[in-house]
Write a structure and sequence with these properties.
The chain is mainly α. It has three helices and no strands. The chain is rod-shaped.
Length: about 80
């Protein structure tokens, strides 16, 4: 009986870990999409005279830092 309970516990822990990993991936995708949107907004503002090259550069650096840490998978998803 204890073998069955041990396996059930392992399966539950595995499912929990997979769920946490998926949540982390979704949060990273959302953060990347937000940074990409901010870069686009900064670029648009700069091109229309209401933004600065510094703001565009800052947004680009933040996006690049995110990509360095988490990869660019969010750029390829729909």
């Amino acid at each position: 009986m204890s073998g069955f309970l041990d396996r059930a516990k392992e399966q539950a822990q595995s499912a929990l870990n997979q769920g946490k990993q998926k949540v982390d991936e979704v949060q990273q995708q959302r953060a990347g999409n937000d940074l990409l949107r901010k870069l686009g907004a900064a670029y648009y503002a700069e091109r229309h005279g209401t933004g600065t090259p510094q703001a565009t550069g800052d947004a680009l650096h933040a996006l690049e830092a995110h990509i360095a840490l988490h990869g660019d998978g969010f750029l390829h998803s729909s």
